[in-house]
Amino acid sequence: MNAITSVTHQELQQRNDTSLLAWGLSKTTKTHWNTLPIRAIVDNNPKLTGTFFQNIPIISPAQLHQWPDPIVLWGGHLENILAKIESLGLANEILIHQELTKSPLFALSQHYLSPNNNLQQKMHLFKKMVRLVELEPHSYCNRTCWFCPNSYLDRRSNTKFMDESILQKLIHGLAEINYDQTISFTRYSEPFGNDVFYSTLKKIRSSLPQATLHANTNGDFLTDATLSKAYESGLNSLNIQLYLPQHQPFEYTYVQGLAEKTLKKTPSLKATLSQKTDDWIEFACTFKTMHIRMYARDFRKNGNPRGDIIPSPSLSNRSSPCFLPFSDLYIDHTGDAVPCCNIRSDDPKQRAYVLGNIQEYETIFDMYFSKNFLSWRERLWSFGPKTFPPCKSCHFASIDFSHYIDNHLKKKMVITKE
Ligand code: SF4
Ligand code: SF4
Q: Per the database record, which ranges form the 4Fe4S-binding SPASM domain (predicted)?
């Protein structure tokens, strides 16, 4: 098995390596390539093999047998890259870049399964692990997309709002730990569909100056004025989704038409095509300093089952761990907290999967470490068949098996009697 070490950037620089390989022509590699002696970039995309980035050759994983240098892993998809390296039987030393790795894998410990943490410990552990808090300040969505449970659950006729006490408890808790990760306005509402979105953004931004405030939008309410208002209120990241009707083939010209419709309403938004595959078309956008993506995906190929309620292309018996109940927190407008983005509290079929309501707890940290959250995590941290719904048939956030990750998890997560 490869020698695998988790190292800080400083430690990496102090090793004085003269030649390192970086895995993936990712955003992280494009940003940080010149801080280390990167001599080649390994990438799975066959179209990139033989090309160059900043005069650095891009090689395929199969060519790695000719490159014995240590490989730096940074950015996302770490677990699947480790599985790939293991499957290729490579002997390269693996260096996992601690600061630039997004995986929760290396923050995991048995403390995330323990009911015995005091409040200070809970706050520390939450800060170390949680990368995403997702919420909906109101319930309204104007659409009933065919791949979304809103196709049969009414989110149009009676708009409900998140109670101010719920919002304040959330903001207060996150401010106490100076939360600097992402807060996403997503769930099952259209954020721009009600003005409470802007006032909520302002409240959160004034207490959490370092956090990334992100939203997903269907684009229907997007204009130069609404985009500017959201930006001035604190939004600094946005995904504009281009949704195709159910029976519309996934074609570039159709997607381009959807993009042009959005751009016509928001002339300040500038977009250039950045990705085009048979199931994903994306435009990189610029608007002031906001990070914006606009994309269409083929839900027939890459959709997810939404906790068993939407037909999915690849349902099977899950064996992979799922780290979402560790790294993310999802709160509906009612204050109900659920284990992942696929579950919603207003669907009677999923009601049993609600893990608690923020109003029942003194702090969000007490909820994150409540009995229901702990037992949901306990069933999902390891490799092995998942026999319980909805996880047993969910392929979302799966990772590939590797002995390294299996051993790592067993070492980190086996609970010693306290
Ligand atoms: S996918 Fe988004 S826009 Fe479509 S119905 Fe669901 S929440 Fe609304
Ligand atoms: S396995 Fe799927 S349904 Fe279960 S918590 Fe993870 S994402 Fe949600």
A: 322-395
